[in-house]
Amino acid sequence: MKQFFLLLLLWVNIVYVHANHIIDQIDWETFLSRHDLVWDKTPDSYFNAPFLGNGLLGAMLYQPSGNMLRLDIGSSEVLEHRNTNAKSIVDNGRLPIGYFEFATNYRIKGSTGRLDIYNAEARFNLEMHRNQTVEMRVKVLRNTDIIVLDYQPTENLKGYWIYRPLPSVVPRQNPNRGHVYLNPPAVQRIIGDVNLSIQKRDGGGDYVTAWKEVQLADGSRRLLITVQDDYPKNTDLNRVASLLNEYADENKMKTAFNAHRDWWNNFYTQSFVSIPHPQMESLYWGLQYKLASMMRKGAPLCDLMGPWYKETNWPGVWFNLNTQMLFSSLHISNQQELASTLSDYIHDNEQNLINSIPEEYRHNAAGLVRCTGREQIDPVFEWPNAEYPERSNLIYLMYYMWEHYRMTMDDTYLRKQYFPLLKRAVNFLLNVLEKDDAGKQHTPKAHSPEAINDSDTNYDLSSLRWGCQTLLEINRRLKLKDKQQKEWENTLNHLVPYPTDQNGFMASAHQSAPLGHRHWCHLFQIYPYYLVNIEQPENQEVIMRSLQYWGDPKIPNTWTQAVISSMYSSMQQGEKALEHMNYALATQNLSANFMHSEGGSPCSETYGGLSRMLLDMLIQSWGNKIRIFPGVSREWKQAVFHKLRAEGGFIISANRKNGSTEWIEIESLAGEPCILQHGFNGDYKISGAQIKKIDDSSCRVYLKKGEKALLYTDNAKPIITPIVIPQGHYNYYGVSAAKH
Questions:
Q1: Residues 6+ apart with CB under 8 A from 691
Q2: pTM above the 0.70 mark?
Q3: Helix or strand or coil: residue 371?
Q4: Alpha carbons 227 and 246: distance in angstroms, whole number
Q5: Where are the beta strands (DSSP E) in 444-596?
Q6: Which of 257, 335, 342 is nearest to 289 (CA)?
Q7: Lowest mean pLDDT among 19-28, 486-495, 508-517, 528-537
Q8: SS3 at position 215
Q9: What are phi and psi of 108, to 5 degrees?
Q10: What is the SS3 assignment for 644-677?
Q11: Crossing angle of helices 485-494/458-478, nearest 10°?
Q12: In degrees to the nearest 10, what's the CA dihedral of 524, 459, 419, 359?
């Protein structure tokens, strides 16, 4: 009888699960704790320190060898704003703020700590001389621009924080000038018990660092810090002081702590990924934390540093790869608010994009310079030079804005903002196409990023093809009957083919692909545009020839290896995708706190590239088809994801078990057509919708807006739980004596 009731309960559970689709059983705090960064040794540099940020302010805690404990402060809105003839990464590049040092009467012997990514808080224990221990907690409040550091001094320990402003100068200088612009020294003031460091700028306005230390009811101490910049005005010092005084109240701060915790706890639940690769899983979730720390709605566009400052050769925003890659994963991971900060910035600066190109083209075109300060005022024909401009940067950027649109299917945005600007981006090339005697159209002399100068670069040819195809697709969808329709069709019919040689796709009409080169712009037709792809039998050989020539595992660059992995995933070669994933994780560019750098300078693009690398293994949605686990290696018998987004406005969850798909849930947000490459190994069932089988690997799912469908195998249990690898090395990042 007991066995009968157990079987009955099991049957009821299975029926209940199928009727109500999937059940989420994730204990988020426990799950994310296995991906916290952990220190059992003292962090001693920018590249192994715990980092915190709220999309505007940033903080890092570490102790350089032989020096005091240091709290670095950064703000992504503090820029130079000069009106000179220098490049705008000097005129308008990022400026340093400064740092705090902890002076104590006892020497710090060492420290241990943890970066709690679920609650966005760093916790450290400082081991002092004579067995004194100081506990520290650091937060950068998500909803209020205040850095909070709490510490519990012991009976005999005395200590205080000293602020060290850094010289206000953009570190990158114009080599033709021979000097850099240095702003005046910072001036100190005190308003009540609030300390202020006021940094004037020759270019206008100032930025202010303010701090206040208070005694709490339990005997602990609290350091409150803010950085404010009201350019072009001077900052209202009384307002800044009032802000810190307001949050010095413990009840007010308790409310702020709760709001901070709630925001972060909710952020993670927008989607879920778990894989049988502990290091990559830890990196993925750590990068979700990092991306949210770097961006927020209404804040400045994220640059190559994010909110953490370090002297760098790249104190600005780059647009021939970096920004594109940085934003390449957010729309898939269902972080729509963060992803929208890119389109917000681009559309807010549309007039500057028009003004950045020669006046003769401004009536119908716009462009995007390689690198700039955040105000986007540089001429496209200035970098790299006037003769060989980068004409396709804006089209390339708008590809990822297109993916973001396709995840939401917001046709109002498509009509009013996206389509007009994509037309301008494409016209920047159409206006200068050259026709040969055979009627073939060619792109003029241009720069292929980080490679060569030539005509008919594959960077321009692939970008122009994708742009024209997309404009025609929008024109059909919105029934616009645009007057340029025939021009786009004519371009697609007459544009010269992609140049190839014995190594596959060339860099341009006259130059072979560079060997061992980190940038893959000569292969954009393969990825990310998917113009040449696995579903075209006639192109599979040239794709593999190109990829095998370029995709060298010896290229010592993190994001390059991530892209190679993504390209193999697009070809559904999971073993090669995993191989290059592991190469990416092993590069020296990726540090213990997964800060990425080249030549010692921070480079934020890699965080999006590494995240996209994993997502491309789990789900792809191009060519009006959703592909489940397309790039997963046979080594991964299990994998699970929940609430990832796919083109057409779909929310997808899926589970892989014993090497094949066990179940898939699809929710339609827009009522668009749905073709699914499912990955089932054999028969499967469906509830909630009708399907039409296309072949053994694909089907068409019929869903109206707001409907869900569940596809599943016999005995499937659609329950979302993390994958656990026994003896797996989780908490991989930080400074761990066990790992190193």
A1: 699, 700, 701, 702, 709, 711
A2: yes
A3: strand
A4: 15
A5: 446-448, 452-454, 500-501, 504-505
A6: 335
A7: 19-28
A8: strand
A9: -85, 120
A10: EEECCCEEEEEEEECCEEEEEEEEECCCCCEEEE
A11: 140
A12: 160
